[in-house]
Design brief:
The protein has 468 residues and is of the alpha/beta class. It has two domains: 3-47 and 269-459, Enolpyruvate transferase domain (UDP-n-acetylglucosamine1-carboxyvinyl-transferase, Chain, Alpha-beta prism), CATH 3.65.10.10; 50-265, UDP-n-acetylglucosamine1-carboxyvinyl-transferase, Chain (Alpha-beta prism), CATH 3.65.10.10. It contains twelve helices and 23 strands. The protein is globular, with a radius of gyration of 21 Å.
């Protein structure tokens, strides 16, 4: 069995045949989601983690010495981060690499402003970039796609002001805004409400070693979503020799000091593995993901438990994670309904909700109210698109409830992606079991996985290729 791969040495949006889009412009023709016809037997190697790649890019730019990032993700989100850091004075060069693109050699430079930064729709950039810009000398203006201007940014703006940084946003509490850096940030103690996104915490922690006094940060809100992402940030800091630790359930301390460079190898993106692994439950058969880490801070690792809730058998075979879906839904197997709290791994919700919509029993997915502020309001989007297929999905304050219902595609009414990569992949997953599903703007998957349409086709039986 070969490894399904796709050579993409430089990031580009997929072509029009994949339903790509111009920024804030018209969409090209829809993508016909393939239907599962036979059990799967596939092994995939996936590109690097987006969450880890963008964290390591920031730390590399702030480090005391160069860093070689091996197997980083090359996608729209990571390309925007690279462009942003280059514009601030960091040198980032391509160096060798593998099937999904070159390694990156990052050499820190003196940070300077006087530049605009395009955030696209990347939450990591719009939350991680401003604290870095505060360390630069001169104004840095942040803006992005039209949808990015709807994403919550008040906490980033208020937190920088709380640290003595001048931020001009004309009262919007959203993009666009300008950070007027002075080349230093005093740091110290700060309280913020990060209820809308853990990225507000991570963005501050990543830059904190360069603050004069470091940072003692406390979350003041009622709940904190996606805590594993903060643990990922702390682990990345600690691996570079930074004294960074949790001091309570919702407080963290980062001491000022050097950030080591060296060499960092990125793990594959486990959240991007979600639709591929879930496909085994619908089509039947097995799907393997190569190089699944033994230990990781990625929330995608929880798929090992989540997919068993739907009846999958999950095991390891060497460095592979293996999901066996048995005969699968199309082979006559019923998927049970589930009751799950995804507060620690909300980015997996579109895949899990898509499976639940195909289940034979009722389901309730909670802990995902914060997804209303992601690339789109994911709760409303999932409910709208599944109900358009005949589903029975009800929005709740903090989640979704689903009742069993037969799904069928409506001619002329494609599954909408809402400029959200995970909505696009959820549509592809539903399309495995529902003939005639068409996905609008499949090219939005370029945000974190430009190769998705090709990998999805090969998953379902096209001739595998072995990465060079």
């Amino acid at each position: 069995m070969g490894i399904l791969g796709y050579s993409s040495p430089r990031f580009e949006l997929p072509g029009d045949d994949h339903g790509t889009r111009d920024q804030d412009g018209p969409r090209s023709p829809v993508w016909s989601a393939p239907v599962a016809r036979e059990p799967l037997s596939a092994r995939l190697a996936l590109p690097g983690s987006k969450s880890l790649t963008n964290r390591e890019l920031v730390l590399s730019a702030l480090a005391d010495e160069p860093t070689l990032l091996r197997a980083p993700l090359h996608s729209r989100d990571s390309a925007l981060m690279v462009d942003a850091l280059r514009s601030l004075g960091t040198t980032i060069e391509e160096s060798g690499g593998g099937p999904y693109g070159p390694d990156l050699l990052v050499t820190p430079g003196e940070l300077s402003g006087g530049v605009p930064i395009d955030c696209g729709l990347a939450g990591t950039l719009m939350r991680f970039g401003p604290p870095v810009a505060a360390l630069a000398l001169g104004p840095v203006t942040f803006d992005g796609d039209a949808a990015a201007r709807r994403r919550p940014m008040r906490t980033t703006i208020d937190s920088l002001r709380g640290l003595g940084v001048d931020v001009v946003d004309d009262g919007r509490a959203a993009l666009p805004f300008t950070v007027h850096g002075t080349g230093r940030v005093p740091g110290g103690e700060l309280g913020i409400d990060a209820s809308a996104s853990s990225q507000f915490v991570s963005g501050l922690l990543l830059a904190a070693p360069r603050f004069d006094e470091g940072l003692l940060l406390t979350h003041t809100g009622d709940r904190l979503p996606s805590l594993p992402h903060i643990e990922m940030t702390l682990a990345a800091l600690q691996a570079r020799g930074v004294d960074a630790r949790a001091t309570g359930e919702a407080s963290w301390r980062v001491a000022p000091g050097p950030i080591a460079g060296g060499e960092v190898t990125l793990e594959p993106d486990l959240s991007n593995a979600a639709p591929f692994l879930a496909a085994a439950l619908i089509a039947g058969g097995t799907v393997r993901i190569a190089d699944w880490p033994r230990t990781t801070t990625q929330v995608g690792d929880s798929l090992r438990e989540l997919l068993t809730e739907f009846g999958a058998e999950v095991s390891r075979d060497g460095d592979d994670l293996v999901v066996d879906g048995g005969p699968g839904l199309v082979g006559g197997r019923e998927l049970p309904g589930v009751t799950l709290d995804l507060s620690a791994g909300g980015e997996l919700a579109p895949t899990i909700v898509a499976l639940a919509a195909l289940a034979s029993g009722p389901s309730r997915i909670t802990g995902i109210g914060h997804l209303r502020g992601h690339e789109t309001d994911r709760l409303a989007a999932l409910a709208t698109e599944l109900n358009a297929l005949g589903g029975r999905v009800t929005e709740e304050e903090d989640g979704l409830s689903l009742e069993p219902a037969p799904l069928s595609a409506r001619p002329g009414r494609p599954w909408q992606s809402y400029e959200d990569h995970r909505m696009a992949t959820a549509g592809a997953l539903v399309g495995l079991a529902v003939p005639g599903v068409e996905v609008a703007d499949i090219g939005t998957t370029a945000k974190t996985l430009p190769q998705f349409p090709e990998l999805w086709a090969r998953l379902l039986g096209a001739t595998p290729i072995v990465p060079a």
